[in-house]
Amino acid sequence: MRLLLWDIDGTLLYSGGVAGEAMRAAMTTLFGQPSSNDRREYAGKTDQQIIIETNPHLTPQYIADQLDAFATAYMAELAERRAEMASRGRVLAGVPAALAYYQQRADVRQSVLTGNMQAVAAMKLELTNLSPYIDMSVGAYGSDHAKRVELPRYAIERMHAHTPHRITGADIVIIGDTPNDIACGKAHGARTVAVATGPFSVADLAAHAPDAVLPDLSDLDAVIAAIG
Ligand SMILES: [Mg+2]
């Protein structure tokens, strides 16, 4: 059994900046200041890590203790922007076909590995109609740990807890749009597939030596070959 772990932002969907606006509003409410508006600066980082870096005067423990309240505020901000997300956001090219293909493969489970907190990840997938393809119970989220590189362990543990399948990092494929996604997969011996639909180009991503790089997910045969 293989576990495919898709990144969300810049890989499956682009929120049109709406999610970033919602997150900055929630950060201002909870912690007093918003994060930077630069997509590259926090691409591939977990929400927790972004909050920690934006608020060096707060302890990571304080931030961790506030995470549930932050998630609630973030969800409320996103819900208020539901219509805007629908008009400005989009599912990236080829994504529904690729997800549908792997959903019917008996030898594959697919979920997400994302810096988003679990509740926020669920909401983004729901707003873009991608929820039916994703088994959230075996994913890994920014609410699990501040460092993305730690997240594959949570997905492996959840596979063991929720399915009869015992897997290791070598059974995982990480698909993402940033150098942080590649580094996170490599640290666990996972296969890494980079896709240049976020803030990084094919050349930027290739410099980090993923197992495969794609310009986007629009060519299903190329996606299948890259995932291996
Ligand atoms: Mg991403």
Give your account of this protein's structure:
The chain has 228 residues and is α/β, with parallel strands linked by helices. It folds into two domains: 2-15 and 90-227, HAD superfamily/HAD-like (Rossmann fold), CATH 3.40.50.1000; 18-87, DNA polymerase, domain 1 (Orthogonal Bundle). It is built from eleven helices and seven strands. The strands form two sheets. The protein has a five-stranded parallel beta sheet, sandwiched between helices. A two-stranded antiparallel ribbon has the order 2-3. The longest helix is centred in the first third of the chain and has 21 residues, at 60-80. The protein is globular. 44% of the residues are buried. The mean pLDDT is 94. The chain binds magnesium ion. The site of magnesium ion has 10 residues, from loops.
SSE order in H/E notation?
Answer: EEHHHHHEHEHHEHEHEH
Q: Output the CATH topology of the largest domain.
A: Rossmann fold
Can you give the helix content as a percent range?
40-55%
CATH superfamily of the largest domain: HAD superfamily/HAD-like
Tell me the number of strands: 7
